[in-house]
Amino acid sequence: MAIFLVAVLAVAAALSPVLLGAYANNPILNILILVLQIGIAWNLRQVLRLSPEVTWMETYQTERQRVASLPPPKLLAPMASMLAAREAQSRTDLARFTLSATAMRSLLDGIASRLDESRELSRYMTGLMIFLGLLGTFWGLLKTIGAVSEVIASMSVGSGDLNALFEQLKSGLAKPLAGMGTAFSASMFGLSGALVLGFLDLTAGQAQNRFFNELEEWLASLTRLSSGVLAEGEGSVPVYVQALLEQTAENMENLQRILQRGEDGRAQANQAVMSLTEHIATLADTMRTSQQLMLRIAESQAAIGPALQRLSEQRRDQGYEEATRGHLRNIELSLQRLLADAETGRAQSTAELRNDLRILTRTVAALAEDQR
Fold first, then answer.
1. pLDDT for residue 134
2. Going by C-beta distance under 8 Å and a sequence separation of 6 or more, which residues neighbour residue 354?
3. I want to staple 197 with a disulfide (CB 3.0 to 4.6 A). Which of 7, 126, 139, 256 is the partner?
């Protein structure tokens, strides 16, 4: 469009003397025709207004989280509101958004009607340019006919002076020629303006058709077609039955997502139970080892007691009583240390078991809540 406008301006600059002369023949009608060239700005606006719509659509396809930061679209306003309502219903699974064939067709029909409405003014301006050119033509022809009739009526051949008759005819033809200039200048400006507006309207229509085709291809990738018996006679299915089937399909998809989340939660619960079982087995092994250690300590005490008593009796008179008491004291301290370590291990194992049981209880409660 810009290249075409530059070419038109270059041709107008090259033919400026001729155009200025033609413009002077009928300045009132010609200035009205030139004012109507505002249709050029209108056609440019029709193309430029597609840019935010394309930006919104591409952002929705690639980075859906940034759509809220963009200004709301105007041509795609119905589709944007419907997509926003759909996302509000299923925020957990936005990638599986689908449309029915009827919904896609209604969306495309609404957008096509909006695009056609935006081009009606441009078409009207193109037709108005042609009409003004024809109006100037008929106006100029009427002036020409009236001037010719006046020339013929004012001619007199009775004097017989051919020079005077020729001068009278030449002066009388000025008005018919001015009328012809009015007619042809209005036709030239009107048809040239219609040519410019028609080409710009054509290019604007091509841009809108390209936008519409890309939108249709994207929506076609999101469309879910019917199958089976309904697909053979889809046109005869009542509207409420089709709406019921679509709602049923959506409910089944939601149920499938809920079941999937339940399976995931059940798998996590199974893993938690297995981990708890392993901790309980480890705790049981620790307690069993502690019991064996305590039995060995008791057996050692039972075995050492008589020997120590005999040793005490034998060494009582030899001065070793104090040394024996020292050894007994050391043995008693060692036994107390072993008992303290055993109690500490038992308390630590009991605390770990309580933590694991608490985690298992929370997991089971969360799973029950998800299933409800």
1. 84
2. none
3. 126
Q: Which two tokens stand for residue 194?
A: 């219609």
* Amino acid residing at 261: R
Number of Cβ within 10 Å of residue 188's Cβ equals 20
What confidence score (pLDDT) does residue 6 get? Answer: 92
- SS3 state of residue 73: coil
In this prediction, residue 164 carries a pLDDT of 64
Nearest CA-CA partner of 92 in 261, 331, 271, 308: 261
CA proximity to 308, closest of 332, 334, 292: 332
Q: Can you read off the two tokens belonging to residue 18? A: 């001729």
Contact (CB, 8 A) for 43 and 122:
yes
Token representation of residue 328: 């007994």
Q: Residue 149: CB partners within 8 Å, gap ≥ 6?
A: none
Phi, psi of 192 (to 5 degrees): -65, -40
Beta strand 223-224 with 99-100: parallel, antiparallel or unpaired?
A: parallel
Predicted local distance difference test score (pLDDT) of residue 228: 46
For position 165, what pLDDT does the model report?
Answer: 64
**pLDDT at res. 182:** 77
Closest listed residue to residue 250, CA positions, set 150, 100, 361, 114: 100
Whole-number Å distance between alpha carbons of 361 and 370:
14
Q: SS3 letters for 164-231?
A: HHHHHHHHHCHHHHHHHHHHHHHHHHHHHHHHHHHHHHHHHHHHHHHHHHHHHHHHHHCEECCCCHHH
Average pLDDT of adjacent 10-residue blocks, the chain of 372 residues: 91 84 75 79 88 84 72 77 65 55 78 83 85 83 76 62 66 71 80 88 90 85 58 50 69 80 82 81 81 80 71 60 68 78 76 76 73 66
Q: How far is CA 153 from CA 110, 144, 149, 166, 195, in A?
A: 64, 14, 6, 15, 41
Residue spans per domain, the chain: 2-225, 240-371
CA distance 190 to 135: 9
